[in-house]
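Need C-alpha cells for this chain, all 135 residues.
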Amino acid sequence: MTRFLLRTMTLIPLFVACNWGTPPAKVAPANGPQGARVALRLCGEDSDRVGELFSVDSVGVTIRDVKVIRVSWTKLAAMDIKDMGSAYDVAFGEVVTPAKRAKLAPLSRFPQGLSGTLLRSVLSTLGQSALEEVR
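Here are the C-alpha cells for all 135 residues:
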C-alpha cells in the first residue's frame, strides 16, 4: 500500500505539469494553415489594424485583413498576437531582433516568407494587383 501511494504521489506532479500552458487546440496556427490573428498599432495611427499574420521577415510584418499589407518594422509601434501571451507581443518601443522574428514566423500562414512567385500567386488568388506597403 505504501509503495502504491508513493508511486501515485510521484506521478501526480508529472500529470499536472503536462497540462500547463495553452493547449494546442486553442491556438489557430496549430490547427490549420491560417496564421495567428494579430492587432498592429502603427506609428502615427490611433487605431489598430487587425488581420491574419501572413509572414514575418527582415523587412516587416505582412498581414491580411481586407487587403494584404506589409508594415515595415520602423512603422510598427506595437503588435499583439491573439492567445499567445506577452512573450510573442511586440511592445511599444521594442526593437525586434532576428531572434524575435524567428519566434514569430512559425505563427504566420507563410513561415518560409512571402515573396516572388508565391507572393504573386497569393495576390492573384485574392484579386489584389500589388502588395500594399506601409513604410
